[in-house]
Amino acid sequence: MGSKDKHQTEKNHHFIQAVSHALDGIVGMFKEERNIRIHAVFATAAVVLAALLQVSRIEWLWLLLVIFLVFAAEFLNTVTEAVTDLIVKHRFDIDVKKAKDVAAGGVLLAATFAVVVGGIIFIPHIIKLLK
User: Is 74 in the active site?
Assistant: First the structure.
């Protein structure tokens, strides 16, 4: 922490320091980004439904994989938006638009995959319940 204003400008020197910054980033995402909160609602619903339907261990693994894949994609999308906005100082730039669109497309692909996996897992359990 070499700067006078107490903001870190150097690499993390300790694991705990790195974890602290990572947790700050996660908390910041949930405070500032509406879409991550929406993903969290759907993830929570999927976890509750999986618990109620008593899905198998392998099904839990798939569900957790797609949940964290969507979260990771949303985090990367937010990074892309923040960095590109910083570079162009919030002015329109066609290359920045392309970068943001591609990042958002990655989130859409991850979310679509999550819905497909959820359908493959939940639909047979629900059909079995309804019989």
Answer: yes
